[in-house]
Amino acid sequence: MSNVIVNRVKEFLKRYPPFTFLNDGTLGLVSKEVEVKYFSKGEYLFSQGDPAQNFFFVLKEGIVQLAEQKDEKENVVEVCDEGDVFGVLALLGKRPYILSAQAIEDSLVYAIPVGVFEKILEENSRVSLYFAAGFASGQVVVRSDLSQSQKARSEFKELSKDNGLMIFTGQSDLNFSSDVLCCLIGKNIGEAAKSMSEKGVGSVIIVDENKFPLGIITDKDIRNKVVARGLSYETPVEEIMTKPVITKTKDAGFSDLYLTMIKNRLHHLIFTEDGTSQSPVTGILSDHDILLSQGNSPAVLINALMNTWDVNEMAKVRNRAELLLKYYLENEVAMDFVANIISEINDIIIQRAIRIAKNKHDVDFPEASKVKFCFLSLGSEGREEQLLRTDLDNAIVYEDVPQVQQEEVQKYMLTIAEDVIETLLICGFQPCPADMMANNPQWCQPLSKWKEYFSDWIISPNQKALLHATIFFDFRPVFGHKALSDEMTDHIYQEISGKTIFLNFLAKNALLNPAPLGFFRNFIVEKTGEHRDKFDIKLRAMMPLTDIARILVLSHRVVGINNTFKRFEKLAELEPHHQELLLEAGKAYEILMRMRAIEGMRSESGGRYIQPEVLGKLQRQLLKNTFAPIDELQKIMRVRFQLDYFAS
Q1: Residues pairing with 293 in the sheet
Q2: Measuring CA to CA, how many Å separate 238 from each of 22, 185, 318, 359, 409?
Q3: Integer Cα distance of 491 and 493 in angstroms
């Protein structure tokens, strides 16, 4: 092959994974061995059952369709696009092809010899991970692929360089004091305390004549060990110092230092020249320094929220939480941890907002303010899945009161709710378009009315009732008397018991959005409206999983687990024969949550509608891999709830 053609092949391949993971020299060697093949429209590259050839393919131009022959029917599995890798059985297993590949239009492909690539597969972990994660077109998808996919996405990208968030990566910039107050052993407590006061510091390191650290005295020690006990200030420092000291070198990694302080419950960590107590002191690290270094860490943000009653300050803290979320998403931090942190921040804002409102209005409602109530988060926030500040779904349930009090009590509850919603809007959340919020009188009701709502929805499951069920059945208590929320849960299960028809309706409703398995070359996109030509990740991928998880936990009478991927984890315990599939569904949902949040932050939107052109090859393949468990679960639901025999 001429150098001109080799260079063209090389320039093309380096745009697409897994070739993007090769260095220039290796890619050049691969490009020299490539065979350029032309296939006319309708021609087969290989057929199902054929022995694997000695090369795999990359589509250069045209369209190649991968199909499976089953029950005398041909089912299209995937349609390959420019840069797609396919026919990898020759590389991975040398087994007969399980799919057929046919040119749908005149096509040009690059055939990569297996011999030249096998060594690369062994030596390059990123290349082998690409194939292990099921990213090649038409590759056999096994259930372990989504775990590999999550790992792959992390491996295939650079870490964020936001130093203020590098708490677990060892890359954080760390500020500490190198001007350390030391006190020679044998001095008395009064001298040590005077030195601390003059220097304006809260600790002093007790050292020997070589400046080797022996112990430490803090303000707390003087308060608890000297003043509280009435000790003389003439007492030698060694009698009250904390010993032995834990030491490190200042060059130790941030995560090592941070975890050492957590593990040993330290407020101060001493630096020495060689990191041991047998060398001179060079610095001291305090927990305050750690907080400053963390910048936007959860501890700092939560502490800031807990120490302010100013709504505008709360809004600033919630804005800072977006930086934290961005870092977590970019660096593949576990989604359950991310969801818990963001939900905790959101919950604290709601709790503070309610307390602010009560402090403002309780004096005007002396009797109504004594009525027990519970503020509920619904929908995605109720499931602890609202990473972005999308629309609010919430409600209030309060204890039943005599009819004569009802009007006054509801007025009070609505007044509180109005202030809370206003605070949440100031903090950047969006109002619910359907007005499913606690300041709507319909959703601010006594317990008896809520029980009536749930009974009606369960007994008469029309389309509107099913819509309400998908939102209100995921309620979660955020503030107030949890017992009211528990009573609602108990009532739901009492009503469902013996009424399997409700679950049939709920299951049928969950299957309205089948897994979008046919979008491979082009997305199934919205055809009209403002989101035309965009992919609806919520409707077409996330909702089917949330609906299935909800129905299954209801059928198993599982209480207290709202989060979708945690529901799937619990269901995997309850249904061991479907364990792998259910765990895979949970992983799929985590991936979808992350993709939606990343898109939302990229486009400054709710992330629901994804523009296909912004997704790279790996992202598209990863998204495709999440559809497989949706399809399998929907088939199980159809059989379990007898939906083929269920009346429309």
Answers
A1: none
A2: 61, 6, 46, 50, 63
A3: 5
* Pairwise pLDDT comparison (260 vs 28), residue with the higher score: 28
Q: Which residues pair with 135 in a beta bridge?
A: none
Q: Name 465's bridge partners.
A: none
Q: Which residue has the tokens 């499931």?
A: 383
| pLDDT tens track for 408-435 | 999 999 999 999 999 999 999 999 988 9
C-alpha span between 630 and 95 (Å, rounded): 28
Is 58 exposed, middle or buried (CB count within 10 Å of its CB: 0-12, 13-18, 19+)?
Answer: buried
Mean pLDDT of the chain: 85
Q: Please name which of 410, 386, 384 lies closest in space to residue 397, comparing C-alpha atoms.
A: 410
β pairing state of 444-446 and 268-272: unpaired
Alpha-carbon distance values, 524 to 67, 144, 282, 300, 627 (Å): 19, 26, 62, 42, 13
Q: Rounded to an integer, what distance in angstroms lies between the CA atom of residue 516 and that of residue 142? A: 18
Q: Which two tokens stand for residue 324?
A: 């934290």
Buried-exposed string 457-482: b where 16+ CB fall within 10 A, e elsewhere = bbeebeeebbebbbbbbbbbbbbbbe
Average pLDDT over residues 49-76: 88
CA of 122: how far to CAs of 53, 117, 525, 544, in Å? 20, 9, 39, 39
Two structure tokens written together for 416: 């509180």
- DSSP annotation of 100: E
| Cβ–Cβ < 8 Å for 300, 306 | no
pLDDT at residue 254 is higher than 60: yes
Report the C-alpha gap between 59 and 68 in whole angstroms: 19
Whether the Cβ atoms of residue 540 and residue 608 lie closer than 8 Å to each other: no
Does pLDDT of 605 surpass 70?
A: yes
Segment 273-282 mean pLDDT: 93
Beta bridge partners of 376: 395, 477
CA–CA separation, 478 and 630 (whole Å): 31
